[in-house]
Design a protein that fits this description.
This protein is α+β, with helices and mostly antiparallel strands. The protein has one domain: Cyclophilin, CATH 2.40.100. Helices cover 13% and strands 27% of the residues. A seven-stranded antiparallel beta sheet has the order 1-2-7-5-6-4-3. A hairpin with a 2-residue loop joins strand 1 and strand 2. The longest helix is centred in the N-terminal third of the chain and has 12 residues. It is globular, with a radius of gyration of 13 Å.
Length: 139
Amino acid sequence: MTTAEIVTAKGTMKVEFFDKDAPGTVKNFCDLAKKGFYDGLNFHRVIPGFVIQGGCPNGTGTGGPGYKIKCELDGGNQFHDKGVLSMAHAGRDTGGSQFFIVISRAQTAHLDRKHTCFGKVVDGLDIIENIRQGIKLKK
């Protein structure tokens, strides 16, 4: 199982990836992270009770890595529970670098099998609640 840390100005979240269910999405995210793509980017979209979203190089939700990846929606972990990492997109198979972390299952069930769930925060769930728009990701 692949793991990582998402380090923010509010603390560190430990993540376990869904390697089996979303191998392409996990690889893409990890490759971008290893290249430093996410370093210093902010959470540009924060909706209390819903999601925190980051991964836009423009800081506005309008940018990406310059390519698109396919959605992986058939695995057993494709449910947007609290702490789940999911690939943001502007329509099926248009994701790239933007991701979101679920704050509450109550408002995200409609995203199941529409956005690729590719990991889950297993330590540091409390940090999700403290993220505000503009909070940065660190190295």
